[in-house]
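Lecture 7 notes. Example A: sequence first, then its structure tokens.
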Amino acid sequence: MGVTAYDALVNWDLSRSDVAATLRPGLALTWSADPAQKTVWTFRLRPGVTFHDGSAFTADAVVWNLDKLMRRDSPQYDQAQATQAATWTKSIARYSVADPMTVQIETPAPNANLPYDMASIFMSSPARWEEMSRDWAKVASRPSGTGPWVVTKVVPRERVEFARNASYWDPRRVPRCDRLTIIPMPDAVTRVAALLNGQVDWIEAPAPDTLAQLRQAKMQVILNPYPHVWPYLLSCLPDSPFRDVRVRKAMNLAIDRDGICTLLNKTAMPAKGMVPPGHPWFGTPSFDVRYDPAEARKLLAEAGYGPKNPCKATFLISTSGSGQMQPLPMNEAIKESLEEAGFAVTLQAMDWEALRARRRAGAAAPENKGGHALNNSLGTADPTAIIQVAGSKLVPPVGINWGHFRDAETDALCEAVAVAFDPAEQTALLAKLHTRIVDRALWCFVVHDLNPRGLSPRVKGFVQAQSWQQDLTTVDLI
């Protein structure tokens, strides 16, 4: 919905499937930080852009949109949108209009990663809000962005209908189809049946055990890596066995990742870190994440565990959830592998939102007492995603260092990445940071999701980007 109806100042380049998605100009033509203090960013806006309601996109509209997320005393402030956007607005201290087509945004400290945050803050129309009696609930029925698709009808929990925006500001991304309908179908079996009977042309996340059926019916099954890893976040607190790096490495060595991928019908690939080998940020770790139960048992023995004294650990897991793939069978299979290597694992299952709350609270929170690992899939698309899980100052609620991991070299690299304004320098530092993260076994890395989709043979032109977001403008029906 985001990149379908809206744009941000900075957009993701979703035009290629063979490389990780990078940033490109969106509603801002250029952006740059002041060379001296490096805390004030100047965004020069794209001229001639209009919202779907015909009103002009200007610097005032940008400030209005930031006010709706950050200024509680502004008439357009909306708590629901503010909560959704909090991950990305927390890096903003102040903002202002420099001229009708220029906005300045100030960060509390030098932060080279602000453009990545701006890619997730979408611009909606102030004029539409006024038109709908300044009521966000009414705006939700007739939203107005600047994106390549215009929302024409919203039926809550049933469907959203779009029409192509023939006057979209980027001629290369004017949609090839006239209309688009998005239908929520929570159940994977229902989605597969809808594709097979021709009710829909496209489904997200078909169940792994239905892929053969889809291929036999001549449906397209599309797989591609994207910035997403399915790990266990490990507690390094005094009451956790994972405070010992040998135990963290043993867990990484005790899991049969190929078996997990087979369980998922090859809709995942084994993980050797937060990002896969070949990614510019992977680096050169000396610790090889692999299946080696003998080495796992050896490391556990060195840490004081054995057949009569297994390494006891409790894992917090979900029953389902966004990006969690098949968490119950996956965790059961992993539990079996770990116990063969000398662990004694207890699985504590809960619903997805409850698990997310436990993740946001951090391992030291009272509700997480007795929990030693948390299974939460996470994105790895931008430098901040790497920094916020590793820096010792970024424990919840500030960041996602759930387990209170602390390592001086990691902290120094996190700080260096955050202020590396040269892209090549930042990439080199990220490779060093990821190397350190793997070598210290910050997490137990399990698999990368391959983001399966099922498409009718009629669908042509889709490019599955290595991204959480996808571009539907290239899609055609033959």
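Example B, a different protein, same format:
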Amino acid sequence: MNFDTANKILFETYNPQHHDKGTIAKLIFESDVEMNSLVYGSEPIKVITALLSTPQTYFLVEHTTLAVLNNRIVGIVVAYPVSKHAEIDKLAGQGMMKSMNPIVFIRKMPLFMKMSKMLGGTMENDGLYVHTICVDSEVRGQSIGRKLIQHLNNINPKMYLYVNANNHAAIRFYEKNGFIRKHHGTMRHKGKEYGELLMERK
């Protein structure tokens, strides 16, 4: 854990026994409301909270870091080696099936297959895959996001992430922090087009 005296930001590893899962689930959901609504269904916070309580998840303790300001969770980042991406993807699929209604999960399989194809592009195995990054909307503009990127940079300066192609503010933020656009994937679902950009930072 690192203490930033300038902004009083404390970086803490997620602890299921100590940190409030509801707060964390809300941040995870807000990292991409449009896509997460598609993925997690009508009760996304409930499903994500359940995922935070299972070992079959993207949000494993060893990959999840929280930004804490004055004892309040204000940011989250979930990142793991690209080399583990396929393994964690498979694991998380099993967790999703358990965390949501199995019938709902089966009905969503065509959507998940479309999303898998949309999330294209290549990532080098020695890089770091940033699955989730989000700062509480009430404290944005205080360099917390930049601090999270710097925190990851200390782990591995080569990073990859996907961002919703409609989230222009997030794209500007990533480009300002050294990311470049690498791939643009799209899909059509229920008459609406969605897109994700793969971004890279070296």
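Note on Example B: The first strand starts at residue 3 and ends at 4. Confidence is low (pLDDT under 50) at residues 1-6.
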